[in-house]
Design a protein that fits this description.
Elements lengths: L4 H14 L6 H13 L2 H17 L7 H10 L3 H10 L15 H31 L6
Helix pairs in contact: 1-2, 1-3, 2-3, 2-4, 3-4, 5-6
Length: 138
């Protein structure tokens, strides 16, 4: 690991101060753990998003509930990769797509409507991940 837990905690504290975001000690510990387990960049990006969630619930100090909500909305690289692996068969032109016979074609037509909503969700999650990593500019 590039940073120790103490280093991550200090960096998060500095970033919170610079962004004028007040966080509880528990929330800071959770951000530190997330930064250690995933990446420092991801945990730092969660600060602003968590502050927005906090303000939306009319809170003044970012708490665990805010961090958990943001963690559920925006995925890190590890969870994003797991998601892509889990649903790779549902992507267009999947390497696992082998084509089918006539009976399978009937089943596929019925399943296409269900897959459209799943694919839309996959694309949206992918776009959110790109945006959270600032790799995609719209």
């Amino acid at each position: 690991k590039a940073y120790s837990m103490e280093d991550i905690s200090r960096i998060i504290g500095i970033r919170c101060k610079e962004e004028d975001v007040d966080v509880t000690d528990q929330a800071k510990k959770l951000l530190t753990k997330i930064g250690y387990d995933t990446s420092l960049r991801y945990s730092l990006q969660m600060i602003t998003a968590s502050d927005i969630v906090c303000r939306k619930r009319k809170g003044k100090i970012v708490d665990m509930v805010d961090i958990k909500k943001v963690y559920g909305l925006f995925v890190d690289v590890i969870r994003s990769t797991q998601f892509l692996k889990e649903y790779e068969d549902q992507f267009l032109y999947s390497e696992n797509d082998k084509g089918g016979d006539d009976e399978e074609d009937d089943d596929l037509e019925n399943k296409e409507e269900e897959d459209e909503s799943i694919n839309r969700d996959i694309v949206l999650r992918f776009l959110f991940e790109c945006l959270s990593k600032q790799e995609l500019v719209i």
